[in-house]
Amino acid sequence: MQVHVKMGLVALLAGSVAVTYLCSFASKSFTQFFFSPPDQQKEISRVPKIRHVVLDESVVQGKRVFLIGDVHGCYDEMMELLHKADALRDDTVVIFVGDMVNKGPKSWEVLDFLRRSKVYAVKGNHEDHVLREYDKSKDPGYKLPPKYTWVGKLTSEEAEYLRELPYTISLPTYNVIVVHAGLVPGRPLEEQSNYEMMTMRNVVKTADGFEARKRATEGQPWAAEWTGPQHIVFGHDAVRRLQLYDHATGLDTGCLYGGNLTGLFLLGKERKFVSVKSRQSYINAVKVNQF
Ligand SMILES: [Mn+2]
User: Fold this and answer.
1) CA angle 133, 78, 95 (to 5 degrees)
2) Ligand 1 mean position to 77 CA, how many Å?
3) Which residues surround ligand 1, an ion (CB under 5 A)?
4) Distance 9 CA to ligand 1 centre (A)
């Protein structure tokens, strides 16, 4: 009898939890569906004034362009790569594909280098994470998680530099677009979601085109479905390492995980890579679908 009463109570409790959950889920979905533009469904930091930067002929004329994969605070490897490629010259335009900071050992040093040098970069999901933590840390009651302690020391100028990183950099001279994570095929640049440009890995086919997926468990790599006309250079996907498609090149070769840091020179239709070995595995393994 006692057992039955207990079971009844448990069932009642479980039922009420489920109903509460379903109600909150339904109302959230309803609100999101009717009142939020797509980007606000996923939390991101305040968007930069210019989302899409164009580096035209006046910037790249007579210069080499060198694109660098996800650095993640691997300052020593970054400097080694820049020297190996002889890229710190006035005749070389250097562009980073995002996720320059976080997770690795020397995020601040990388950020300081970026700000002091005449290099370009797009915003990755980790720059966005840093900004969200920075904004939260302005509340005196907020305690930064241990892995974001370095964010507490950022000046407002340093945060502002990260804030204004664009989501894409286009190089019409080379017919190239640089983005951190990816672009949804068949969708104009202006209609790409800020969140997805920093986080997507795959796309799934729908009746009217493609939808982005953050996780690689569903659909295809977006780059496999990208048919141009521009060539997209991106990072973010350390699990897949170097990705070579006709119209897309993925440069995240997992420096943070003991792989390589890879750079790419744009030379007409050819792709010339320069890479350096990671000095150590700063994190033991790439978690599949890591965010
Ligand atoms: Mn990333």
Assistant:
1) 75
2) 18
3) 99, 124-125, 236
4) 46
Location of structure tokens 């305690």: 143
Under 8 Å between Cβ of 261 and 278: yes
Q: Provide the 3-class DSSP secondary structure of residue 77.
A: helix
Q: Is 101 helix (H, G, I), strand (E, B) or coil?
A: coil
Distance 50 CA to ligand 1 centre (A): 20
Length of the chain equals 291
Closest listed residue to residue 97, CA positions, set 260, 263, 235: 235
* Domain 44-277 = CATH 2.60.120.260: no
What's the pLDDT tens digit per position in 186-238?
A: 999 999 999 999 999 999 999 999 999 999 999 999 999 999 999 999 999 99
> What does each C-alpha distance from 185 to 116, 211, 244 come to in angstroms?
35, 9, 17
Query: Cα of 221 to ligand 1 centre, how many Å?
Result: 15
Q: Tell me how far the alpha carbon of residue 101 lies from the centroid of ligand 1, in angstroms.
A: 10
Q: Distance between CA atoms of 2 and 171, rounded to whole angstroms?
A: 74
DSSP 46: P
Is residue 242 within 8 Å of residue 250, measured between CB atoms?
yes
Q: Which residues are 52's β-sheet partners?
A: 168
